[in-house]
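pasting for ref. prot 1 ->
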Amino acid sequence: MKTLVLIPAYNEDKKIGDVVSDVKSKGIDVLVVDDGSMDQTSSISLKKGAIVLKHKINRGQGAAIATGIEYAKRNHYEVVVFFDADGQMKSEEIRKLIDPVIKNESEVVLGSRFLGLAKNIPISKLLVLKLAILFTRLTTGLKLTDTHNGFQAWSMLALDKINLTQDRQAYASELLQEISENNIKYKEVPVTIEYTDYSKQKGQSIFNAINIVFNLLIKK
């Protein structure tokens, strides 16, 4: 199946070149959606062989994902893998996410760091994620072991069923709501998420988590 790895990025030039090169070495097309960066993210990504789309202003990760999905639809990709730009995901694990989609075992495959490995995860992050898992179960009914994990594989058939409206981090919870409301067949697979000093700086704070809940409630 024609597969695209979609990487939303904002001021990620310290890592983006290595991330793009690593994924490209697996023989997969890479799309970087530069969400209004003020550094060399776009030029570095292009030099490393990525397709690059750029927002003129910073709109948020959800908006970058939506832009990438529209590109994938226009260019007839069949599988889209969401992948972070900060280097905390492992490109060698992409295959285990896309295989169930290729084999028609699942429409969506969600990576789980708690079935796999959350290496060097901060205690504060662990607490926020555990609360988010509970929130997800209560609001969607999905019995997940992880949530807000950006490592996912979606079939185009599944992407055609959803309506992504959240421009910022609330999009991650919105995706899970869409899976539940549209009865999309999903599964979790173990993945490794490695937290470095750089990725910790780029990550969400507890205040962002509160904003996510607020945005989802406003939508309702």
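and prot 2 ->
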Amino acid sequence: MSTDRLSSAQQAFLSRLRRREWLVRASRWAILLLFLSLWELGAQLKWIDAFLISSPSRMLLTIKTLMESGELLRHVGVTLWEMVLGFFLGTALGLFLAMALWWSNTLAKILDPYLVVLNALPKIALGPVLIVWMGSGMRAIVMMTLLISVIVTLATVLSGFLEVAPEKLTLLRAFGASKWDCLRMVVLPGSVPAIVSAIKLGIGMSWVGVIVGEFLVSKAGLGYLIVYGGQVFKLDLVMAATAILCALAALMYAVTAFFERKVRDTRGE
């Protein structure tokens, strides 16, 4: 609908929405810049101990040094590859298991107590076991990430499947639809918000799995840099690696939010 067909009240309402959106974005950046400025000022004026807390300028210098040596891309690449691989495998497996449990109510009832225990169990506790089983390498880190993301995806997506209105399924069955037809035509489309929520949760939890795995056993990656920096008291390295992690997490959140908006536009929401 073109703006010339909108009433003055509608145009004023849309204008207020745009101003509020701009205000929210500007406020976010302003808070970040204010925080970084106060941090740098406190370090320069000796209000805080820059050796222990570092400062934005020291972090930038550390990142520059890592980039010039070629170490930054290597460590970021290792962490991203572990995260993406574990997340996608875990999400795909969790989605498949959710469909299997929806398909068989008997199987869902049998496995329900085990799923509750797995969901409550801190996956970090399995770290030493995974290291023994899979060796002290990338496979153990990817497996830990997979375990975390698969449980999150399974629980979230299955909950979305079970919330689909049973009247729709009854209507389809009345017209002779098979269980596969119900899943394909009603359950999966109706559970898109739950699937998107599972992806958002899975991304956050996958980062936790990767970094914890790198804390336990790794020879490269951002988690390795954090542990190494702490061991040799290079706090600038610790804070720089943490800042890079924050930037990567924010980037993946932005990509997920963009995907979510596209899904809502496609569904006409």
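The radius of gyration is 24 Å.
The CA atoms of residues 58 and 116 lie 45 Å apart.
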